[in-house]
Amino acid sequence: MRPLRENGHEEPVIRDNRKIDPETGEVRVRPEDDSPKQEQQQQTPAESAPADAELRAQLDERTADLQRVQAEYQNYRRRVERDRVAVREQATAAVLAELLPVLDDIGRAREHGELTGGFAKVAESLEAVLTKLGLSAYGQKGDPFDPVVHEALMHTYSPEVTEPTAIEVLQLGYRMGERVLRPARVAVAEPGDAPASDDDDN
């Protein structure tokens, strides 16, 4: 209880709330700091364990969500890039296929000695550009016949071959990379003698 003055009023109470003792320079410890707060701090680790576990579970869940979203985005980017490459290849293949008759004309002109002068330079430039785009011709006499890349226009038998063979190339085939734009049209010979016809039997 506060002391009373002579006039009957209570004297004011002055509290020194400074954290540093001005005389000793040491940190003061308040009496009220000792009990409830310290007990609360002592109880915090045990009481906060369930809360920490819940936070850890939420963090793991959010991390998993983020990783899943990132993986989906990467897959999306790869799919878009793959589709872009496929569309570009299809467009290039369509243009090259339209130019194949022009290359056939150039080839015939070259065989007949008509590819001379400025026309020869233009033809060479065109062939160089198409080669740069991935176009390549194939089909040679003596190649083993492959129905995937060859189209047989003529068929015969010959004892000089040991397997179905292109004995004559009637029209070159063209491919872009691994894609066949036009099969090589060939005459094919199979091993063996030609079978006897009904007229020979008579």
From TrEMBL:
<keyword id="KW-0346">Stress response</keyword>
<keyword id="KW-0963">Cytoplasm</keyword>
<keyword id="KW-0143">Chaperone</keyword>
<dbReference type="InterPro" id="IPR013805">
    <property type="entry name" value="GrpE_CC"/>
</dbReference>
<dbReference type="InterPro" id="IPR000740">
    <property type="entry name" value="GrpE"/>
</dbReference>
<comment type="subunit">
    <text>Homodimer.</text>
</comment>
<dbReference type="InterPro" id="IPR009012">
    <property type="entry name" value="GrpE_head"/>
</dbReference>
<dbReference type="Pfam" id="PF01025">
    <property type="entry name" value="GrpE"/>
</dbReference>
<feature type="compositionally biased region" description="Basic and acidic residues">
    <location>
        <begin position="53"/>
        <end position="63"/>
    </location>
</feature>
<feature type="compositionally biased region" description="Basic and acidic residues">
    <location>
        <begin position="1"/>
        <end position="37"/>
    </location>
</feature>
<comment type="function">
    <text>Participates actively in the response to hyperosmotic and heat shock by preventing the aggregation of stress-denatured proteins, in association with DnaK and GrpE. It is the nucleotide exchange factor for DnaK and may function as a thermosensor. Unfolded proteins bind initially to DnaJ; upon interaction with the DnaJ-bound protein, DnaK hydrolyzes its bound ATP, resulting in the formation of a stable complex. GrpE releases ADP from DnaK; ATP binding to DnaK triggers the release of the substrate protein, thus completing the reaction cycle.</text>
</comment>
<comment type="similarity">
    <text>Belongs to the GrpE family.</text>
</comment>
<protein>
    <recommendedName>
        <fullName>Protein GrpE</fullName>
    </recommendedName>
</protein>
<feature type="region of interest" description="Disordered">
    <location>
        <begin position="1"/>
        <end position="63"/>
    </location>
</feature>
